[in-house]
Design a protein that fits this description.
CATH class of chain B: Alpha Beta
Radius of gyration of chain B: 17 Å
Shape of chain B: globular
Structural class of chain B: alpha/beta
CATH topology of chain B: Glutaredoxin
Oligomer: heterodimer
Order of helices and strands of chain B: HEHEHEHEHEEH
Strand content of chain B: 15-25%
Distance between the termini of chain A: 80 Å
CATH topology of the largest domain in chain A: Neuraminidase
CATH architecture of the largest domain in chain A: 6 Propeller
CATH superfamily of chain B: Glutaredoxin
Helix content of chain A: under 10%
Number of helices of chain B: 6
Structural class of chain A: mainly beta
Chain lengths: 420, 160
């Protein structure tokens, strides 16, 4: 029997090699950079997966990324041009979700604390746990990771999103299937998943009990969060309205009036009826007059493609809907407001290369500049992410051919003098 | 124990469930053209799916239930998962009894190019199906296919 098993192992291994012919090494991003080749590749933001930036004062910046089962944080003192050796956040390696929609987050507290959240892969289909760690010494050391979800069943608690408000409180929201699991046990139908969240009021030492924000969210799209001028945390996510309408919902966290509603306020009205996975979450940024700028993807009856819209929480209406890109292959629309200008960015494929494009609005989203190409790449690429510091706006982008880059985006004034 | 010819082949048979995933072909740049040119003049259904897509599981289950209605050539399944996890991808195909059909898996980091070669108008949502007629005019649909839609296609593709 032993020989049969050994024989099988041989057959299986050779078959595995065949199947893995075109695949890249586990734990690497598939980076094409020379320094990223080989099994013994040192941790580096260029070789790792799903990097995200945090810009601080005096050109100091911290970057989180995933490599070989570790969350790493790498510091830079020149705004991301060069990097200090990375520090492992989790000393014991674990399986970590590190794709475009489901990736580690980095945020800063009021006393310079560095907060990291991520989703750990657990045994079982779609299973995961929300993890958190902090550094109180500027990223030199990190605390042992803690679990944020208080339901520890091996089911889906994934797609974490994190913000810090003006009080310094940390809010983490995620997609949670505990209600779906409960419904299944009693043979009751339950559409999609739920949005849960937890708040820390002690700089990340601990989190308050989990709360449910809404039932029936879509299952595989990132949640967007921001804080408004009054310190209220706002979440935007793809919802499942009856029946199978996958438009977006918006809600304040910690607002008992709309807590756990199956019909949260609808932010987008595209009427996209689909029993499917868009794998494509929205973004939001609170701007002037507390107006909320949204970007999203839809294939609805009313709107199609990458969209922008301006939402008002008072009137609960969306206005100035604007199609950013109607072409297939365009993806990942991002939005940020800085010094009175609204910026949107997205990726688009031109048949040969993926382009990263930016469009600006100096009138709070009423009108938009023609898209301008900031960078391009002829291989695979991560989602782009906006990063702001003072009046400066940049895009964080990891591409397999070029590595990690912080790409400056001209402000509207710079852009005007540049083009005249 | 002497390894005889019979026991060798018996052993190979025992290992069969483990080897089968080698039959999952890589989907790389140019694969889409390969799939269509090798089916010139034939109607077929192309289904794109991924592990991280719960509705795709419903779709695969449905296709598995209707597997006898397809010929070996008129159903092509493409997993858009990357090659990190070919065993899990193959297990889902085998569990749904869809292993007799052409199965491919995305095997190029430049997924934008692969998607473009399949359909420049597609944004990547899943499941995604393309109904090809005999003259290769095609109809795209996002989301789980209903039985009625599949029945209509079976009827239409038989007429030719």
């Amino acid at each position: 029997m032993q020989r049969v098993l050994l024989f099988c192992l041989g057959v299986w291994l050779s078959a595995d090699v065949l199947a893995m012919d075109h695949k890249h090494k586990p734990g690497s991003s598939g980076s094409q950079l020379k320094q990223c080749q080989g099994v013994a590749t040192l941790p580096s933001i260029h070789c790792g997966q799903t990097p995200a930036p945090l810009l601080g004062e005096d050109g100091k910046a911290w970057f989180v990324f995933v490599q070989n089962g570790h969350i790493y944080v790498s510091q830079s003192v020149d705004e991301g041009k060069t990097f200090l050796p990375p520090v492992a956040v989790n000393t014991i390696p674990e399986l970590i979700y590190s794709d475009g929609e489901n990736r580690p987050k980095i945020a800063q507290g009021q006393q310079g604390e560095i907060y990291i959240s991520w989703t750990q892969k657990a045994e079982g289909k779609y299973a995961g746990h929300i993890r958190f760690s902090r550094s109180l010494d500027g990223g030199k050391t990190f605390t042992a990771p803690i679990m944020v979800n208080d339901d520890l069943a091996p089911i889906s608690h994934r797609f974490d999103s994190m913000v810090v408000d003006q009080r310094g409180d940390i809010s983490i929201a995620w997609i949670d299937k505990r209600d779906l699991a409960a419904a299944k046990k009693t043979n009751k139908p339950y559409a999609g998943a739920a949005i849960y969240y937890a708040v820390s009021k002690d700089q990340g030492r601990s989190f308050e009990p989990n709360k449910k924000l809404a039932d029936h969210s879509c299952e595989c799209c990132r949640i967007a969060m921001d804080v408004d001028a009054y310190g209220r945390v706002i979440a935007l996510w793809r919802h499942v309205y009856p029946t199978n309408i996958r438009d977006h919902a918006i809600a304040y966290l910690n607002d008992e009036s709309n807590s756990a509603s199956p019909f949260p306020v609808r932010a987008t009205n595209d009427e996209w009826q689909v029993e499917g996975c868009p794998h494509h979450g929205p973004d939001l940024s609170v701007g002037r007059d507390n107006k909320i700028h949204l970007t999203w993807f839809t294939q609805g009856a009313r709107n199609k493609g990458l969209m922008y819209g301006r939402f008002d929480m008072e009137t609960q209406l969306i206005e100035r809907e604007h199609t950013l890109d109607i072409k297939g292959g365009s993806s990942r629309p991002q939005v940020v407001t800085s010094a009175g200008t609204v910026y949107t960015a997205w990726k688009r494929f031109n048949g040969t290369e993926t382009e990263l494009v930016v469009s600006r609005s100096i009138d709070n989203g009423d009108s938009w500049s023609a898209p301008e190409i900031i960078a391009e790449t002829a291989s695979g690429s991560d989602h782009p992410m906006f990063v702001t510091q003072g009046k400066e706006v940049s895009l964080s982008w990891h591409t397999l051919a070029e590595g990690y880059r912080i790409l400056p985006v001209l402000t509207s004034n710079q852009h005007a003098s540049h083009t005249h | 124990m002497q390894v005889t010819r019979t026991s060798f082949f018996a052993g190979l048979l025992l290992c069969l469930p483990m080897v089968l995933h080698a039959e999952m072909t890589a989907f790389v740049s140019g694969s889409m053209e390969q799939i269509t040119t090798s089916r010139k003049g034939e109607p077929f259904l192309l289904v794109l799916w991924s592990i991280d897509c719960p509705p795709c599981m419903k779709e695969l289950h449905q296709l598995g239930e209707m597997r006898s209605r397809f010929s070996q050539r008129n159903l092509v399944l493409v997993s858009t998962d990357d090659q990190m996890n070919p065993d899990s991808v193959w297990k889902i195909i085998a569990d749904n009894h869809l292993d007799q059909f052409e199965n491919r898996i995305f095997s190029d980091d430049f997924t934008e190019r692969l998607r473009y070669q399949i359909d420049p108008d597609w944004f990547g949502e899943l499941p995604r199906a393309y109904f090809y007629s005999a003259d290769h005019r095609r109809l795209a649909q996002s989301g789980v296919l209903s039985e009625a839609v599949l029945e209509r296609w079976f009827k239409a593709s038989k007429k030719k």
